[in-house]
Write a structure and sequence with these properties.
globular; 2 domains; alpha/beta; Aldehyde Dehydrogenase, Chain A, domain 1; homodimer; Aldehyde Dehydrogenase, Chain A, domain 2
């Protein structure tokens, strides 16, 4: 419990820090990581050895690995966060009420933010820096497999805090990293203001079921692209290719392509040829399989985020069929329509309930960097507070400051 | 489960309704309530008889009671909601990204909102109208004691929906009103997007502990006013009186007055005289009781929302002492400082973590109407999504609409 009280106290100290001070300390943190490259590499080796002994997959091992170049990239990410505008203290709105009270709505930090994430150790420094810049204390819970790396990274950042007479608890690692420790953390609504789980479905479900602290989920993406009968195929092919093939393992990649029955006979063969050349594994509904030779897509496939070069195909009857399919199977992440028809395009983006709705573009753009947010906290699949790509403004709330001159309520 | 699926479907229909249609239907709803005054009164009498038999308090009975005048007031509240600007479809932000995607951030309804409230039956029509205007379906769970009244009010509103070929499920009453029914509702994150509990601490704790759906709490207010050494006593006395005495039973009333030790000897006697004249029951800390004769305020008092003409008094050492007391005992609702000192005033409103922070004004202004919001959903004591007085914008979220011309991600 003591670390929670310390985090709460620390949050009121970091909340009062000036932009200049925060930026100066962030640059010192970047410097501390680079200066301690060898020590970080040594701790990372312990994680790599344990990972190897525990049979982590090659891709997991790659995500875990740190060298001088990756440590410099972590430092550079912190330097970039230092250059962002301070999201705290913005006057979001202001007016005078009927009693001549001057009311200002001003952005303030949220307080204490708990972040639960998996393997990559750079998330530790990224997240700590995002919370710091936005004036929040954070309690970080990284993956067990990156424990040594995360600990030394947090130590380095904390040493900069201490050198600046600030409490270490501004950037804390969760002391008990067991499932019970997490279950305990997410119930501490007296001390913790927000939990952000980033990871697999099981983790997010566990957090959501146990939390009394508000949660912003960074959940799965089951993204669709609907190929309308008025499609411009020459424009559509590169978009479909990009959305599936460029980086199949990310949440904004297309999982299911919906095709208007009115053009399915014409467009499916060239689309199949393109995906075959890209090595994409295709699976389709019965109507699809009557036109092109692909595997069977069942109901479960349509619910699944494959995170692989696999694509479901389903034939639907017009834009209404696409909207209906997405209402059933979509995860509210990113959905696109490819069409030349103005009314159909608007009908689609007005009706589909998702954080990002596209006309004639790849779903791969749903990303804080692509949106121009500078730094990304993540992509929220929650509807409240922050939805879709989430910049550091998402780590602030607001208060009303009311300037009176003796007003009483009549 | 069926009613949840119906609510979800209904939410996508109401979300697409034009402002003109929504306003026309709201006016018809107001008309339907007035036209059925006698039928509503008859059902209300059943609740009143049961309440009387069950020994409800006089104030509970008064809150429950409906007559022609109160039914007209309910209708008038709906008419006023019809005149508010539509919170849906506002372009909150818009820009062109580096790839020339046109990105618009547009307000949209949240979806299905569950609202759990207590005795007063007018909350049924107010809440239904607020959700309807903001394009949301609602599932309402009123107090058991108002069951007949709530049912006929919902019936009247639904009959207008049906007459306009809209699904009844846009405004639904929770079928199972037992605690189990509520526990079930707040776990339906597949169907319900937001839960707003309005009521006592026990209800709010129950909802928060059981919910997997996001919750916006409308919780208690333990509000403070700090009397600084630089106070203008002539201005301060009416503010203190107003904040405690005008309406002691509301959440924005003052519960604890903090007094700077530097002026306690001078200001406590006149303050006591004023509150004695107002029949306020005073209780103080040991330092207070060394100056004026009042009862004992213990630690529990400082945590309590009295909802009565009772006031705790505590002497603190300067603004820092006030900030510290509020950090421990405050509920994040409304806090005020009374001072002529510019730096002290700013230190207070910058440092105190509450939805509304006042300089030289009564805390009683924390209210959607006083803020000029037109209609109030309530006062949020949550920090995320909506904080403090919450207008109908608080019942919306946003989506990004992205207008492309063939962009793929590089």
């Amino acid at each position: 419990m003591e670390f929670l009280q310390e985090a709460k106290k620390a949050s009121s100290i970091i909340a009062q820090l000036s932009t200049r001070e925060k930026n100066r300390i962030l640059l010192a943190m970047a410097q501390a990581l680079v200066a301690n490259t060898q020590a970080i590499e040594a701790q990372n080796r312990l994680d790599m050895e344990a990972g190897s002994a525990n049979g982590l997959s090659t891709s997991m091992m790659d995500r875990l690995f740190l060298d001088a170049k990756r440590i410099e990239a972590m430092a550079q990410a912190i330097r970039e966060i230092a250059t962002l505008p301070d999201p705290v203290g913005r006057v979001l709105d202001g007016w005078v009420n009927e009693d001549e009270l001057k009311i200002e709505k001003v952005s303030v930090p949220i307080g204490v933010i708990g972040i639960i994430y998996e393997s990559r150790p750079n998330v530790t420094s990224d997240t700590a820096a995002l919370c710091f810049k936005s004036g929040n204390a954070c309690i970080l819970k990284g993956g067990k497999e990156a424990q040594h790396s995360n600990t030394i990274i947090a130590d380095m950042l904390q040493s900069v805090l201490v050198a600046n007479a600030l409490p270490k608890a501004i950037i804390a690692l969760l002391p008990d990293t067991s499932r019970e420790g997490v279950a305990h953390l997410v119930k501490q609504d007296k001390y913790v203001d927000l939990i952000i789980p980033r990871g697999g479905e099981a983790l997010i479900r566990f957090v959501n079921e146990n939390a009394t602290v508000p949660v912003i989920k960074h959940d799965k993406g089951v993204c669709h692209i609907y190929v309308d009968k008025e499609v411009d195929l020459a424009q559509a092919l590169p978009i479909l290719h990009n959305a599936k093939v460029q980086r199949p393992g990310v949440c904004n990649a297309m999982e299911t392509m919906l095709v208007d029955s009115a053009v399915a006979h014409d467009v499916l063969p060239p689309i199949k040829a393109m995906f075959d050349a890209a090595g994409t594994q295709l699976r389709g509904c019965a109507r699809t399989r009557a036109i092109i030779e692909v595997g069977v897509a069942n109901d479960e496939d349509f619910h699944t985020e494959h995170l692989a070069n696999k694509l479901n195909i389903r034939i639907v009857d017009g834009v209404e069929g696409a909207i209906e399919h997405i209402a059933t199977y979509g995860s509210g992440h990113s959905e696109a329509i490819l069409t030349r028809d103005y009314a159909t395009a608007n009908r689609f983006i007005d009706s589909v309930d998702a954080s990002a709705c596209y006309i004639n573009a790849s779903t791969r753009f749903t990303d804080g960097g692509q949106f121009g947010f500078g730094a990304e906290v993540g992509i929220s699949t929650s509807k409240l507070h922050a939805r879709g790509p989430m910049g550091i403004e998402g780590l602030t709330t607001y208060k009303f400051k009311i300037y009176g001159s003796g007003q009483i309520r009549r």
